[in-house]
Amino acid sequence: MSRDSARTRRRVVVTGMGGISPLGTEWREIETRLRALENAVRIVESWEDIKGLNTRLGAPAAEFTLPPERYTRKAMRGMGRVALLACRATEFALADAGLLDDKALLSSGRAGVSYGSSVGGLEALADFARMIDTRVVEGLNANSYIRMMAHTAPVNIAVFFGLTGRVHTTSSACTSGSQGIGYAYETILHGHADVMVAGGTDELGAPDVAVFDTLFAASTRNSEPRLTPRPYDRDRDGLVIGEGAGTLILEEYEHARARGANIHAEIVGFGTNCDGMHVTQPNAATMAIAMRLALASAGLPPEAIHYVNGHGTATELGDIAESRATREVFGSAMPISSLKSYIGHTLGASGVLEAWFSIAMMRANWFAPTLNLDNVDPRCADLAYITGNGLDLECEYIMSNNFAFGGINTSLIFRRMP
Question: What pLDDT is recorded for position 295?
């Protein structure tokens, strides 16, 4: 599709951004820590007594407050931590968009939710597991399933803010947040909504960490939390799990203009596919196809993109496959960096937190480097890996990529707005 024909369709813009990340809840604080080359990884002392768990590292979400007049006991009774993070992040984003108190729009049926997480609330999940193990129904109540279910985040968002439009649940591990954005984009693009709450969330818990630990994919540099993870680096030893939630408010362009909204960026392309080969071993060829699908949907040639936010988990198979796919699509001159070197792998939240940071960096004409990238793994493809103090760059289009277990691939393209 040509860019001219793409422009005859409805346009979709980002009018609100917010989140709870390991680096903070406000972009000013986050940017300060990014420029200071400071990661949020630390030792999680509560895991010390878990026998057989090799890693002790995590990146917990920053502390955040809950206004008591809104977060009442009744309002939170169906929320585990994963949904609570999502609702507070969405409150930040709606406030940023100037829509928090627009009850008429939120309840009009033209505003919906596209949001995901790897799983539901871990505490409620543990309660059900305990019942299976002990054969005793104890500690369960009417809200236990609501807190545990895979769509606990989008449903709680809809109820908390009175949204009555479509609800898309994107429980696809590391692409939950990016698919949430992509499906929200398509919903508005095809006229099914004017506003969509889009994003992802996940809480930090031992079960998530144990998944990667048993695969020998988690970093065990327990005595040096500031030196890990190390995406694309020769001396990487695995990923670090993080925690958080992020929300973008997507809006039809003319709708946003009519109400005088502040527009952060335009989303112009989305591609998603799957490898169809192996659950945990990524495939560079289909990763590259996802990027090309995003370019085709945007009507853009590869040379229009000037920065790629990489998935960059600091796992051997992932880093190598992703870098080769990126090199195949864009060539060796493409600047790329991984924000997971600062906040760890926030799983369902990673796609949206990284999109938020990338949009903000594009607007600041500065892109953060990958931390701890001292020696690029020679098996990774030749790219312009951003190191040092970052890259000063003014550009119009950027791409943000995520890849998940199951071989699910996503690629998003954002355009800088005047």
Answer: 98
In this structure, the dihedral spanned by the alpha carbons of residues 258, 263, 265 and 266, taken in order and rounded to 10 degrees, is -10
Catalytic residue among 87, 174, 264, 380: 174
Radius of gyration of the chain (CA): 20
Compute the distance between CA of residue 33 and CA of residue 316 in angstroms, rounded to an integer.
27
Structure confidence at residue 8 as a pLDDT band (50, 70, 90):
low
**pLDDT above 80 (res 346):** yes
Lowest mean pLDDT among 79-83, 91-95, 143-147, 384-388: 143-147
Q: How confident is the model at residue 3 (pLDDT cuts 50, 70, 90)?
A: very low
- 190 catalytic per annotation: no
Q: Would residue 345 show up in a list of annotated catalytic residues for this protein?
A: yes
12-416 fold:
Peroxisomal Thiolase; Chain A, domain 1 (3.40.47)
Q: Which of 296, 294, 293, 325 is nearest to 310 (CA)?
A: 325
| Active-site hit among 151, 264, 311, 380 | 311
CA distance 157 to 59: 24
3-state secondary structure of 224: coil
Question: Does the active-site annotation cover 311?
Answer: yes
Q: For residue 376, give the DSSP letter.
A: B
Catalytic residue among 151, 264, 306, 345: 345
**pLDDT of 5 strictly over 80:** no
Identify the CA nearest to 57 among candidates 329, 282, 242, 311. Answer: 242
DSSP state at residue 282: -
pLDDT at 301 over 80: yes
CB neighbourhood size of 238 (10 A): 24
Region label for 232, one of left (φ > 0), alpha (ψ between -120 and 50) or beta (otherwise): left
Give the contacts of 199 (CB within 8 A, at least 6 positions apart): 19, 86, 89, 90, 93, 115, 177, 180, 181, 245, 246, 247, 248, 349, 352
> Per-residue pLDDT averaged across 36-49, rounded?
96
Specify the pTM.
Answer: 0.96
Chain centre to alpha carbon of residue 222? 25
Distance CA 336, CA 250 (A): 25
